[in-house]
Amino acid sequence: MTSDHTSLFDRRVSLAGRVLVGRYKLDRHLADGGMGAIWTAQDLTHHMPVAVKLMSVEGAMRADLRARFEQEAKAVALLRHPHIVEVLDYGTDEDTPFIVMELLEGMDLLAATREHTSSWPLTEIAGLVIQVAQGLGAAHRAGLIHRDVKPANIFLARSDIHGEVVAKVIDFGIAKWSENKEILTAANVALGSPSYMSPEQIRGRQLDARCDAWALAVVAFALVTGDMPFVGRNGPDIAKQVVLGNRRKIAAPIENARALERFFTRAFATDPDQRYRSVEELAGEFIRAAGAPSSLRTAARAVAEARGDLPDAEPHEVSDDSTTNRLERPLPVKDPSSAQRVAFDLAEDLEQTEIDDRLNPSGAAAGRTRSSG
User: What is the CATH number of domain 3-101?
Assistant: First the structure.
């Protein structure tokens, strides 16, 4: 065991049993991220298990990372939605920032693709897309843009009530308020995962909710085809293909290939004004293209109707009690195929790219990659 691994092990051992602000007792280390670690803990006040995101000592010493961590806490604490991880509390203990969240049982979509090999029918993919769109839509209505939607940030949580799997959006670490012109990064720098970044995000331009819709379309494309829509040798090369609009096409034998290709043509338009106006509209159109059952289309229509994002060609559908119940009780999510696992793994290897120079249509790009938490 190397000294670095020994040091990390010793740090975890020393943290086990630590009580934050006299209330949250750290129990078991779950995972590490770019900005810290996730622990299970006990809320000693309410006698309940929780998850604690504890910022690393190194991260807490960097003003930019600390600001981003604290922004995540404040932003998500304002959101209450069944498809967004719930933040219960946040604060600082001995100069270490932490976030207390609901403890979820399950795994993220990336882990699910690595662990399982059975394929998803289009109907199940549509169920996942609408759940994620509902969560993102709630954040957007609150003025918050996620900016890093990807499989690792979509958690498939087991529901205690019905035993179903519920998709929840997690990790708002690089989110920003849409009305705030100041981004927590330097000028001409784009934060995010290159395989899921929109052209305007890559260029470092002002963003709105359509960048999250783009990323959700990338997730849907990979689940449907087993491939990423934009490929390249490295992060900057992928970014170049995104800006140029050079993507893979959908064709037979994929089910509903023509309808899905039309959907993705609009979803991946390089001009944001040519894309779907919101994640809700995108989800509704994906469900139609996938040929999902009327219950899902009605659910998607209800979500879009709340925002006024109804597609012009959508026929009127009347909701009934059974459809309403299905909307309130999220649809089950199944496991992706091995091909999707490979696609997501390749994309994850290139995640969290920081592009220092804006790209232009000629394809000139300069950049470097780093972890952004």
Answer: 3.30.200.20
pTM over 0.85: no
Half-sphere exposure of 189 (CA within 13 A, CB side): 15
- The residue assigned the tokens 């290159």 is 194
Across the strands, what pairs with 37?
32, 54
Q: Which residues are catalytic?
A: 148
Task: Decide if pLDDT at 326 tops 80.
Answer: no
Q: In CATH, which of 1.10.287.130, 1.20.1200.10, 1.10.510.10, 1.10.1760.20 is domain 106-369?
A: 1.10.510.10
Q: What is the pLDDT of residues 121-139, one digit of tens each?
A: 888 899 999 999 999 999 9
CB 46 within 8 A of CB 55: no
Could you tell me if 102 and 57 are in contact, meaning their C-beta atoms sit under 8 angstroms apart? no
* Cβ contacts of 294 within 8 Å, gap of 6 or more: 317
SS3 call for 38: strand
Cα separation, 15 vs 41, in Å, equals 11
pLDDT digits (tens, 9 = 90+) for 306-318: 555 544 433 323 2
